[in-house]
Design brief:
Elements: E1 2-10, H1 16-21, E2 28-33, H2 35-49, E3 53-59, E4 67-70, E5 72-74, E6 89-91, E7 101-104, H3 111-125, E8 132-138, H4 144-157
Parallel strand pairs: 1-2, 1-3, 3-8, 4-7
Antiparallel strand pairs: 4-8, 5-6
Helix pairs in contact: 2-3
Length: 159
């Protein structure tokens, strides 16, 4: 198992992300998260493992025909600020290149953005400047085989 790479996603049984990641479970560290407890677990795992690469995955709009690679993460979750002393936004530090993935510049202020912003904040506050981080949004009805191909290609190109 590659210890330099951490994948995190929200636990939704039978969801396309779970189906796409299942064949990769023996090769990569995959952390399924949920709620504030999952957020704290994710933070501690980033600090403990100090991975060179972190890939987050979450769901976006149904019917979207491509995978979104979020380029920025805002310091907001709903009507709240995630980190009162934190930056207004962080940028993705891992540029993903794949025909099925397109850059996007608005992760919104949802749970996905909260987790992505928090990971970027933990990376900075713990001086993990060598860590590359990207967050992907995928439609819940996106073909899981295509998602697995894109994820596998991206992970195998990480070196």
């Amino acid at each position: 198992m590659r210890s330099d790479l951490l994948i995190f996603t929200f636990w939704i049984p039978r969801g396309i992300i779970a189906r796409a990641l299942f064949p990769l479970k023996d090769k990569y560290k995959i952390l399924y998260v949920s709620g504030d407890c999952g957020l704290r677990t994710l933070e501690s795992q980033v600090v403990k493992l100090k991975p060179r690469y972190i890939l987050g995955l979450g769901y976006y709009r149904k019917g979207m025909k491509y995978i979104r690679s979020e380029q920025t993460f805002q310091n907001s979750y709903g009507k709240s600020v995630i980190s009162p002393e934190g930056k207004a936004e962080y940028a993705s530090t891992w540029k993903l290149s794949h025909e099925l993935i397109k850059d996007a510049f608005n992760a919104g202020n949802s749970r996905c953005n909260q987790f992505a912003y928090t990971v970027a904040d933990v990376i900075e506050k713990n001086n993990l400047s060598g860590t590359k981080f990207a967050y992907l949004h995928v439609a819940p009805d996106y073909p899981h085989d295509s998602l697995r191909i894109a994820i596998t290609d991206v992970l195998e190109s990480a070196s």
